[in-house]
Amino acid sequence: MIRFLVRRVLYSIPVLLGVALITLWLFHVAGGDPVAVKLGKNPDPADVEALRQQLGLHDGFFWQYLAFLGQLLTLDFGVSWADNTPVRDIFVRGVGPTLTVSLPAFALGSLVAVALSLLVAMKRGTLIDRVTTAGAIAGISVSSLIYILVGQWLLADQWKLFPIWGYEYGPGAVYFVALPILIWIVLSVGTDVRYFRTVTLEEIGKDYVRTARAKGLSESRILFVHVLRNSAIPIITRLTIAIPFLFTGSFLLEIFFGIPGLGATLYTAITNSDLPVVKAFTMLGAVLYVFFNIVADLLYAIVDPRIGLE
Description:
Blueprint: H1 2-30, H2 34-39, H3 45-55, H4 61-74, H5 87-122, H6 127-141, H7 144-158, H8 173-204, H9 207-214, H10 219-230, H11 232-246, H12 251-257, H13 262-271, H14 275-303
Helix pairs in contact: 1-4, 1-14, 5-6, 5-8, 6-8, 7-8, 11-14, 12-13, 13-14
């Protein structure tokens, strides 16, 4: 397994180098002018030149890229161009609110989606299957913005069950993130149920399921032991791919509910042409994506002994 891990880590190096190169190139092409954002309209030419020199914008692209790689190696991306706050402090400040929303929503939504997919696969062709599938398709077809606005209007404004806006650090955060978590689950379950149902139905039609039924095993044992385990590979793939995005948050939920998380921070950084923050968050997503792809390969070998790592 050590050889496998070393090989995968070495394979990931060109990927991260490429992500860094594309990120810096895209910022130069379409990132806007951070000097204009920071100094406003009609700035003094001397101030413009001094700020460009301070931010390193006069350096060639190659030298900026080398400096970017140096920051990646040291995990020190400097300070924000918008307010001179260290990027590390910005991440530490925002990761808590983001994970407070994303982790519970991801865990609960995944459990609900897997359970529903097993249920509708077992009841294929019945009213339960048709209603659940139609509900999943209808849920996917509605814009996420509609869920947010209706949730705020009905559950927060009219019924007073949740706050419309704000966040509180500590245990009190539960009261503020409950509605965003609920909306996140509703948004994700439809897509997941459709995918997991397809995977489960493919397994239910195989010979080992008919053999298990012939031996007199109960439907619940067949589903939750045999079918679920043999469906684990595509389920693990889908879930591990989604995990890296939990750390960058959902900027729509964070913006509309006033949650000071990483998603809202990244959105603000992009609009302000704040390259240090954009670089840090982009590389964080790339590293997490590579890491959880390796984790997925390890889980494949655990759930299916036929898969070898070497």
